[in-house]
Specification:
The protein is an alpha+beta fold. It has one domain. Helix content is about 20%, strand content about 25%. The chain contains 7 helices and 9 strands, in the order H-E-H-E-H-E-E-H-H-E-E-E-E-H-H-E. The two termini are about 25 Å apart. The N terminus is likely disordered.
């Protein structure tokens, strides 16, 4: 198993100590024509369909309502895509590429979309959200204690939350708590950088994975029965 053994030996999602750092380059605007399949240099993708591979820690991703991964690729303007299984796709997503999943319960995942979009490129999320009935964005990295979750419906931001622990700053807190956040007990998370830190809780990477699962797709795929399948690797 190699790669999988290293990743999953100590966590139900990913080993918290052995993951490569995801790069955070942002995709360019969507093109009008259907993307052309071209070989990716130095990207030996897996071609044997396999089961979904858990991911999430030290990672960022989109979860969008769509019935076509190639439609997602086109609308996001991603370049040079080719088929890949989950094992190789997730590995490469943690090394600078993007992995676009097959359709999962009406959603498509884009793994490695941009780590710090709340501060570096919030307009990219706004623009991308207008292209789908629903778009969710998640990002977490324990070193900087950066944790974010955002949800758009019909192009409108309905909930956005972001925290950067290394700066002690609430980056975003818009929209009321969703029912899923309330059910998960997120009610006492810090809401403003001016809050009394002795009386609030602080978000962590597990909060990000929990709300992702509650809003749509569990990145740990716990108890899922998805069939073996292929996604795509993109620039």
């Amino acid at each position: 198993m190699g790669f999988l053994d290293d990743l999953f030996s100590e966590s139900k999602y990913l080993n918290k100590n052995k993951q490569p750092k995801a790069e955070s380059s942002a995709p360019k605007s969507a093109r009008s024509a259907e993307p052309t399949v071209k070989p990716l240099a130095h990207a030996a993708t897996g071609t044997e369909p396999d089961l979904p591979v858990p991911f999430g820690y030290k990672c960022n991703w989109l979860c969008v309502k769509s019935d076509s991964p190639t439609d997602v690729i086109q609308k996001l303007g991603l370049k040079n895509f080719e088929p890949s299984n989950w094992d190789k796709g997730i590995e490469m997503a943690y090394n600078g590429y993007r992995f676009i999943s097959p359709v999962l319960d009406g959603y498509v995942l884009v793994v490695n979309y941009g780590m710090d979009l709340l501060t570096l490129a919030p307009e990219l999320l706004d623009e991308s959200a207008k292209k789908f009935p629903e778009l969710q964005y998640f990002s977490t990295h324990r070193v900087s204690e950066y944790h974010a979750w955002v949800k758009y419906v019909d192009g409108e931001l309905v909930r956005g939350y972001g925290w950067c622990g290394c700066d002690g700053e609430v980056l975003l807190n818009k929209g009321g708590l969703t029912p899923e956040e309330e059910r998960l007990g997120f009610t006492n998370l810090i809401k403003s950088s001016a809050d009394d830190w002795d009386k609030v809780e602080f978000p962590n990477e597990d909060h990000v994975l929990e709300i992702a699962a509650a809003w749509g797709i569990d990145p740990g795929f716990s108890g899922s029965n998805y069939p073996k399948s292929l996604g795509y690797i993109c620039r």
